[in-house]
Amino acid sequence: MEQLPISTPHCRVERDGHVVVVTMDRPEAKNALSTDMLVGLADAWAYVSDEPEVRVAVLTGANGTFCAGADLKAMGRPSSDPRVAERAAQIPDYHWKGLLRDSGALPTKPVVCAVEGHAVAGGTELLIGTDLRVVAESAVLGLFEARRALFPMGGSAVRLPRQIPYAFAMDILLTGRAVTAQEALAMGLVNRVVPDGTALESALEAAAQIAACGPLAVQAILRACRQTEGLPEPEALKVSDAIGWPVIGSEDAKEGSLAFREKRPPVYRGR
What we know:
The protein is α/β, with parallel strands linked by helices and about 270 residues long. The protein is built from twelve helices and ten strands.
């Protein structure tokens, strides 16, 4: 994979064709969040949205750990890297953008999460901001903030009850307990539980499946899901139709039908 220049000391951003892999890379601190990491994440999500040939992103952590949450000292300390320090000053609310909390700056393409080891506190909040979630069987999830008299500022107090049943969300949020991969799967919090050491491989397989689909269709489906959340069905269908009809009339849609008739793989160009 090609490492992109937007990478930072704690966030490695690589690209392979239509897929961008974002690796939280601070293993000495269990990939706890830092200024260098959050700036790298914020720039990575902007790149994924802005680069036309990118169709999907994969988020993972280095050395068998996803993310142990916030390192308050490191997040409050300016980066020693001049370029990262400059970007931190240039990006409004880079921490919320990096954490996938800023609704106005979410990636316009899907993000697949690959979790090994611990994904706790801010790590689980990051997972909640992604679209597909692959976790290793011994992975540990959890929102520990209440145990430490803190609040989950990454948005989980709002997002989690919208993603999984209320009782499950309250169990996670109010007890601050650790949640196993199998529990998370049963709650509907994650998509797949895979053998240890294979989460990234499985996530890349899912990313390849997404990348093989029509990019306009994938991005429109994602946008419709986000924009209709909480709307009454008649109003939501109007929004969905407005997003969907241009896709139906696109060149990619014609190519999809033609490729099906000709029994060959489609070649989508995003138009």
